[in-house]
Amino acid sequence: MPQQSTKKKQAARPAPFIPEFDPVLHQRVRLGIVSALAAGGAMSFGDLKTVLELTDGNLSVHARKLEEAGFISCRKYFENRTPHTDYSLTSTGRAALDTYLNQMEAVIEASRNA
């Protein structure tokens, strides 16, 4: 005759809440760009590159994705024949960052209460 287990079955825990993060924003470099612009206002290409420790190519690729999503705006101009590029956060970008931060806060709160 098979032996019965004396262990009590534990009630299944509900699955944790994991929000659907915006795939454009939920990436380390792009989140860094948006966060830097949110904290510091408009920034030049060179300043962003320095602050985030990125290469020209890496910053360009990620900034382009954020620009295509409408999260940042890019202004290119010449000053004394020298090209300059400035980036700023758009209202869409600010809203996306606020949503992302709220989602992260919910995950943190759920983790602390687990």
Could you please describe the fold and organization of this structure?
The protein has a single domain (28-112), classed as Winged helix-like DNA-binding domain superfamily/Winged helix DNA-binding domain (Arc Repressor Mutant, subunit A, Orthogonal Bundle), CATH 1.10.10. It has helices at residues 28-40, 45-52, 56-68, 91-112; strands spanning 43-44, 72-79, 82-89. The radius of gyration is 22 Å and the shape is elongated. Helices cover 49% and strands 16% of the residues. A 3-stranded antiparallel sheet has the order 1-3-2. The protein is an alpha+beta fold. It starts with 27 loop residues before the first helix and ends with a helix. It has 4 helices and 3 strands, in the order H-E-H-H-E-E-H. The model has no long low-confidence stretch (mean pLDDT 90). The relative contact order is 0.18. Strand 2 and strand 3 (82-89) form a beta hairpin.
Brief sketch in words of this structure:
49% of the residues lie in helices and 16% in strands. By secondary structure, the protein is an alpha+beta fold. The protein has a 3-stranded antiparallel beta sheet with strand order 1-3-2.
